[in-house]
Amino acid sequence: MDDEPTVRALTVLTTTDTEHKARGLARGAVQGRVAACAQISGPVTSVYRWAGGIETAQEWQVLLKTTPARYAALEAWLTAAHDYDTPEIIATPVVRGSAAYLDWVEQEVTEREQGAEAREPGEGDSEAPEAGKSGAGEPGAGEPGNPEAPGAVE
Q1: Is the pLDDT of residue 64 over 70?
Q2: What separation in angstroms does the CA of 59 have from each of 94, 125, 127?
């Protein structure tokens, strides 16, 4: 069928416990070309079950745009850069969208050959999330810092 949508982009949602960390995750993913752009919303109230109890915490959401081809790289970057043991990383397919916008997303996450902008995620991120800080409000929060994680700041 000609009207069958093709998934050219994904929105990927993650959360963190401070606005500073949200900005670091957003900036690092865009700088690393694993996301074309990101929007930060918050604070939001998260309610979840953890360690046998119901928890409530304040968090910031980061909504990133990428392509299916770059999703694995974005997930790996977020997992390494995030200070939660079990960060929320969920992707939703974009089944319809402006052709010009979807073209732009694809262009922005395409790895550059010899481009000065292409670099490893986390390299030189001035607003990277702080490693080793408690991720209050997320299951598994509080993992000791990993200075080798992309975007980690001591």
Answers
A1: yes
A2: 25, 21, 17
Residue 27 within any structural domain of the chain:
yes
Amino acid in the structure at residue 9: A
Global pTM? 0.73
132 is a domain residue: no
Give Cβ neighbours of residue 92 (< 8 Å, ≥ 6 apart).
10, 11, 12, 13
CATH value at residue 73: 3.30.70.120
Tell me: the pLDDT tens digits for 127-142?
A: 444 433 333 333 333 3
At 143, list the tokens: 């993992």
Name which of 44, 30, 36 is nearest 128 in CA terms: 30
Count of domains observed in the chain:
1
- The mean pLDDT of 43-51, rounded to a whole number, is 94
- 68, part of any domain: yes
- Closest by alpha carbon to 124, among 14, 13, 30, 61? 30
Is residue 134 one of the residues assigned to a domain?
A: no
- Edge-to-edge strand list for the sheet holding 53-66: 37-50, 53-66, 9-16, 90-94
